[in-house]
Amino acid sequence: MSTVIKSGTIVTADMSWKADVLIEGDVIVEIGEGLKGETELDATGCYVMPGGIDPHVHLEMPFMGTYSSDDFESGTRAGLAGGTTMVVDFCLPNPDGQGLLDALQMWDNKSTRANCDYSFHMAVTWWGEQIFDEMQTVVRDRGINTFKHFMAYKGALMVQDDEMFASFQRVGELGGIAMVHAENGDVVADLSARLLAEGNNGPEGHAYSRPPQVEGEAANRAIMIADMAGVPLYIVHVSCEEAHEAIRRARQQGKRVWGEPLIQHLTLDESEYFNQDWDHAARRVMSPPFRNAKHQESLWHGLMSGSLSVVATDHCAFTTDQKRYGVGDFTKIPNGTGGLEDRMPMLWTNGVGTGRLTPEEFVALTSTNIAKILNCYPRKGTIRVGSDADIVVWDPEKEKTITASSQQSAIDYNVFEGQHVKGLPRFTLTRGKVAVHDGEIRTEEGHGKFVKRAPNTPVNKALSTWKELTAPRPVKRSGIPASGV
Ligand code: URP
Ligand code: ZN
Ligand code: ZN
Ligand code: ZN
């Protein structure tokens, strides 16, 4: 079966031009003028862009005594509805001693229902010889080159600095990339206990317990530890100027560090936590919390200047009933918000629509940059002959008001409720299959395939060459004096 996308403007991270795109099976086979195929998709007035890649999602995640409510089926359906054609989830071994391979089996089982392609990051939630050994199998046999470390969630997923340093060194040795959730978990635990003792038990307590300093400190610590371990570092959900400043400084010093803001932090602010309605505020509880306008501007400037590299969602959706586990104690509100369906339209509207971003920068931030960082480029992340036909045909004139009543996500609300977006998919294709056709959802459960990602990316090679060149060496001396005994 061949499909041709006709009369659109192709947008890649490099350039835009008018051309048709011919697809056969899973891949793009030709780009040019006057192409013909068995099926035609009319892209007149549209941009033809690589489908979005969301590198940070938690589908059916076991967390805080429950499971996030979007699974690989509803989560990837939501993604496709909004123009995202690949997601990367986090495999989380139980910190009570579960092995990496055992945990991967569980993630393999859950992900068979995916509607679009997906990959995994591996989390290091405890440290020991078994983890050290299994990391090699994870990289070499399972095609996972990214290892996440939680510096927060004390008593659960959090790891200590010595564990992180050991793990980072191992990741570097294996040609992988270290990732961190950067918040100082010890300080958060202390501030939370104090707030609760003072009677601050509502959702606003969550924001008070995680000020920008806890994020800035942890981001800087992770950057320094990664530098000493000789490993590239990717910092997830960067929400504030303090963390952005640490990343900016590190990049200016030649360190290999990337920062990932979320669409939620770019467009929603901390006033949400002071809403009179407990449910409203609790539904927005996530870590790090939403910040004020100063931090939002910092994030936008980072995207515009290149000091921040990727926009993700951290999609981790809990229903209102699940959020109510934390009535009377904000530390028990499951942390997480949705966003998979809304990331692309919200970023287009608030980025391209305002002149902060060009369409090419939009493509870079939603797809190309992360495909390169994660080492699945150019199979993913661009429009070129031989690439997977993961494509969104983007209609810049199509508008809607976001509302939970028409969303694909399984939860009962949407944190972007009432936001008006202009710029939406006309068609979304996942490896050549049309999954969204002019507003109609035609996803196919199980269509998604696992994307293996090899280690030793060009950045790994450059960094290890530099570290080798500058490694400590004994000074060769002609004569050594007798010891002064
Ligand atoms: O609050 C959040 N971000 N929930 C998901 C887990 C994580 O920390 O990424
Ligand atoms: Zn996190
Ligand atoms: Zn996350
Ligand atoms: Zn299929």
TrEMBL record:
| Superkingdom | Bacteria
Enumerate the cofactors the protein uses.
Answer: Zn(2+)
Q: GO CC annotations? A: cytosol
GO biological-process terms attached to the record:
nucleobase-containing small molecule metabolic process; pyrimidine-containing compound metabolic process
* Enzyme class of the recorded protein, top EC level: hydrolase
Listed Pfam families = Amidohydro_1
Per UniProt, residues of the Amidohydrolase-related domain are 47-419
Q: How is it modified after translation?
A: Carbamylation allows a single lysine to coordinate two divalent metal cations.
Q: Which GO terms describe its molecular function?
A: dihydropyrimidinase activity; metal ion binding
EC number(s): the record gives 3.5.2.2
- Modified positions (N6-carboxylysine) are 148
Q: Which reaction does it catalyse?
A: 5,6-dihydrouracil + H2O = 3-(carbamoylamino)propanoate + H(+)
UniProt-listed InterPro entries: Amidohydro-rel, Hydantoinase/dihydroPyrase, Metal-dep_hydrolase_composite, Metal_Hydrolase, Metallo-dep_Hydrolases_sf
Keyword annotations for this protein, in alphabetical order, are:
Hydrolase, Metal-binding, Zinc
Which family is annotated?
Belongs to the metallo-dependent hydrolases superfamily. Hydantoinase/dihydropyrimidinase family.
What's its job?
Answer: Catalyzes the hydrolysis of dihydropyrimidines and of the structurally related DL-5-mono-substituted hydantoins, to produce N-carbamoyl-D-amino acids.
Name of the protein this chain belongs to: D-hydantoinase/dihydropyrimidinase
Q: Which organism is it from?
A: Citreimonas salinaria
